[in-house]
Amino acid sequence: MASLIEELIDTLDNENTEYEALLELSTQKTGVIVKDDITGLNEMIAKEQVHLDKIVNLEKKRIEVINDIAIVLNKDVNTLTVKGIVNLLEGQKAEQQKLARVHDRLKRTLKSVEAVNEMNKGLIEETLELIDFNINYINGLSQIPETANYTKDAYNQSQMGIATFDKKN
């Protein structure tokens, strides 16, 4: 059982490390989004994907370890949580404290990642709204009716549908 707990602690610690790296990239991504740097954004997404792939594998491992712990403890795997395992380790204070610390650290990191991602989502939505506004504005300009703006050589002169007046001095 002790080796399963150590494996769970290591897995959660590794997950936290990957999420911290993801947090750093997400924070950097905020600046890239503000600068409207599409190339930089694509690079950031590619870097994030490397960490996300590792997190998926660690998550699979965590589920396997919790399943094994549930079998050893004769508990329902569907209701057994890391916090529940911490509570079950009453007689093993060292493992209980280590597991509780890594669990709490992971929760804090996840909350930070969520907050930065929400901010980035808001920035992207604002950028998309601005792009939509600009497209609608440009489309609106092309629908402005042309007026008779003739120069002295008698040809119609307009710029993107905006009427101009050429006064002869």
Blueprint (SSEs and pairs):
Elements: H1 2-34, H2 38-73, H3 82-88, H4 93-142, E1 158-159, E2 162-163
Antiparallel strand pairs: 1-2
Helix pairs in contact: 1-2, 1-4, 3-4
Spatial arrangement of strands, main beta sheet: 1-2
Low-confidence stretches: 160-167
| Total number of beta strands | 2
Helix share, percent: over 70%
Q: Helix-strand pattern, N to C?
A: HHHHEE
Q: Which sheet architecture does the biggest sheet show? A: 2 strands, antiparallel
Task: List descriptors.
169 residues, mainly alpha, two-stranded antiparallel sheet, 2% strand, disordered C terminus
Structure write-up:
The chain has 4 helices and 2 strands; from the N terminus they run ααααββ. By secondary structure, it is mainly alpha-helical. It has a two-stranded antiparallel ribbon with strand order 1-2. Strand 1 (158-159) and strand 2 (162-163) form a beta hairpin. Helix 1 packs antiparallel against helix 2 and helix 3 runs antiparallel to helix 4. The chain is elongated, with a radius of gyration of 29 Å. The model is unreliable at 160-167 (pLDDT under 50).
Overview in brief:
With 169 residues, the chain is mainly alpha-helical.
